[in-house]
Every structure is written in C-alpha cells, then in structure tokens.
Amino acid sequence: MSASLTLLSTSFIGLIVAGLPIAWAMIAAVLLWMVYTGSWSFLPIVAERLYQGMDSFVLMAVPLFILAGELVNEGRITDRLIAFANALFGWMRGGLAQVNIGASILFSGITGVALGDIASLGRVFIPGMVKQGYSSAYAAAVTASSSIIGPMVPPSLVAVIYGSMTNVSIGALMAATLVPGLLIGLVQMILVAVQARIHGFPAVEMDRSPRALAKVTGHALVPLMIPVIILAGMLGGLMTPTEAGGVAAAYALLVSVFLFRSIRFDALAGVFNRSAIFSGQLLIIVGCGTAFSWVMGMENVPRMVGAAVSGWELGYFGTMLVFNVILLALGMFIDPTTVIILFGPLLSAAAAHAGIDPLHFGVVAILNLNIGLLTPPLGVCLFAAERIANCGFVPLLRAAAPFILVNIIALMIVVAVPELSLILPRLLGF
C-alpha cells in the first residue's frame, strides 16, 4: 500500500473516530490526499465528481420513497397493517411477537427503511408486548431484529443505492431481495415459536370470525396497494424506480389526506421538511462517497483488489466466506449506505471477477450490512429500540443474540443456495 493511500484511509478512519460526520470525513480525507500528493489540479474534478454522484435520475427515487414512508407514518396507516398482521399471525403462541415480525414484513413493503420500521412499529409493539408479560428487553429485541427485513423486502432504499453505485439493475435487485427477505422473517418467526413454547408466551385474543377478518383485510388493502404499485410498475417494465417512487408518494398523499383524512393540510409542511432533511443527509453521503471512490480509483485500489481475489483461488464458497467476513465486519462499524458507496463497486467487481453472479452478490451484501445494524458497536437498530424500551443495552443485547444467530443462519442459506436470490429475477425476465 502506497503512502498516499495509507494517508487517505487512515485519515478517513481517524476523522470518523474523532466524531466528524461520515460525509465530511470522506471529503476531508480527499483534501488531505490532495495536499500530500500535490494534486491541486484535481480540485475542480473532485467537486464535479461530488455533484455528479448526486445528479442521478435513479437516485431521485430515494427522496420519493422517503416521502412515501413519511406520509404513511404521519397518516397512521400502520394501524391498519398491524390489525391485518394480527389477524394473520396473532393466533400462534407468542402471538404479539409474531405479529411484530409480520407487521414488519408488511410495513417494509411500503418504506424499506429499518429505522422507519422501529420508529413506527416499535412505539406500538414494545409497550404492548410489555403489557402482555414479555420483558422490555425481549420486546425491543424482536422489534430491532424484525426491522432489518425492511431494507430487504421491496421497495428498498439500500437496493436503490447499491444498484446505482454498481450498475446492477435496480428492478432485478429488488426482485432478488424479496425471497431472502421473506426467509429472514420466516426464521425469526420459527425462533419466536420455539421460545414461545419454552416460555409459554400467549396467543393474541381477537375476533377471527369470517366477517371480522374480511373487515380487517379490506381496511389493509388500500395501504398494501403501495408495494403492489411499486413492484408491478418496476418489475413489469412500466416504470423506472424514480417513477415508481413518485407514484407511490402521490398514492400515499391521496390516501392519507383525502381518503382516510388522517393528515391535515397544515401537517404536510412537517412531512415534506423531514423528508427533505433525511434525503439530503443520504445524498450528500452519496456525493462525497463518489469523490472518495474516484480517489481510490486514482490509487488503483480496484485493480489491487481484483488481483488479490484472483490470487486467492478459493473457489465459490471460500471466496464468499471471505466477502461475508469483510461485509459483516464493515457493517459492525459503518452504516450500510456508506459501506455500499465506498466499497460496493470494489467488492462487486471483485466478486464478478471470481465468477459470482452480481445480483446474488448484491443480495448477500445487503443482507450482511443489515445484520450489522443489530451488532455493536454501531448497532443503530438496537440503540433505537433501546431508547423506546428503556431496558438497558446489555439485557437487550442478550435478548437479541438468538435473533442475530438465526439471521446469520439465514444468510448462510442464501449464500449456499444462490437460486433463492436468482429465481424471481429469472422468472421476470431479468
């Protein structure tokens, strides 16, 4: 490794450890690299790369999906999804925990953001589970673990960013993440069923007559049309991801403001304000990450990584094992968006060089980084759930450990069986 590349990487890590926001740490590391190498002529190019990183039609889908999620949250549409999940899963032992996971699956088809899942569903399920006799730590563990389904089940903001950074079809990637996302929900439900039998967790009592179930289902159909519109439009070739995001946001606006009348007009300013701030925070990271990645290209990092992978000669499973360890380690310290921006193009190219399908590798990468949301020291989903439950971090980590384990088992299944990722894109003609 050259001295300039060492300076670039160590300054970036040091600035993050010092508490500088990731976007500014990346651009500051680039400026320090320019000072060291004397490459002042690159300054206009760095500014151009930063702007071009954000100036993407595909990335316009990000603020639109965020806006759709904010409208759903503000409009309390989650209440209808929770009632529907209750009807589907509440009859089982550990019913409310099962409903928590089921609601996350349904909710993830609307927002695709893990923290949005916790913010919306955690405030309902954590107090509700505690009232039914679950410990606050267990309630928070179920909520945090199920939240990582959100970035897997389409629409997924992480998939949009990954596809835009690696030139993988976003529609195909969203189709590829669907089955593995449902697998994550399934293994978590199996774990809850086992724990419920051991600890005697109760089912949820509710009217499950055909008339009551029909009413609950009818109420849920309107919000559930959001993922249907997105998936049908994108996978059917009718809409680009950006157009699908625009349609989803417009549909959520019409439903919340005019059909359900759950959002007043004077509240829309706050919704748009929160969406703009969150979108800006994501897109500035994308822009700065593009400039940082360009400098890594100047340092020949992609060629070095490709040469290293070629020299391994580990075969499919050996190579995937190394990539999984790298991604899990990165996810423990850095948020998924930043990892994808910085390392996505490098690792994706290296995986393709090793003969790994780009779609399959994208699914594995996203799943690895989602698991990182549950593991210290980053563990943003754990910290978010703990703030709601106020249960203490150590008890929460102890309760979450079995969920982290089954998520890793699901990851191993996805790695070992590529068809889980590839069957749906192939059926849809990607």
Describe the structure using short key phrases:
globular, transport, mainly alpha, 430 residues, 20 helices
Describe this structure in words.
With about 425 residues, the protein is an all-alpha fold. Helix content is about 80%, strand content about 0%. It has one domain. The protein contains 20 helices and no strands. Helix 1 runs antiparallel to helix 2 and helix 4 runs antiparallel to helix 13. The two termini are about 40 Å apart. The mean pLDDT is about 85.
Averaged pLDDT, please?
84
What Rg do the Cα atoms give? 22 Å
Whole-number total of structural domains: 1
Main pleated sheet = none
Helix content: over 70%
Fraction of residues in β-strands:
under 5%
Secondary-structure-based class equals mainly alpha
Give the distance, in angstroms, between the N- and C-terminal Cα atoms.
39 Å
**Number of E-type strands:** 0
What's the helix and strand layout?
Blueprint: H1 3-17, H2 22-37, H3 43-54, H4 61-74, H5 78-89, H6 95-108, H7 114-131, H8 136-147, H9 157-166, H10 170-199, H11 210-235, H12 241-259, H13 268-298, H14 301-312, H15 315-333, H16 336-353, H17 358-372, H18 380-389, H19 393-416, H20 419-427
Helix pairs in contact: 1-2, 2-13, 3-13, 4-12, 4-13, 5-6, 5-11, 6-7, 6-8, 6-10, 7-8, 7-18, 8-18, 8-19, 9-10, 9-16, 10-17, 10-19, 10-20, 11-12, 13-16, 14-16, 15-16, 15-17, 16-17, 17-19
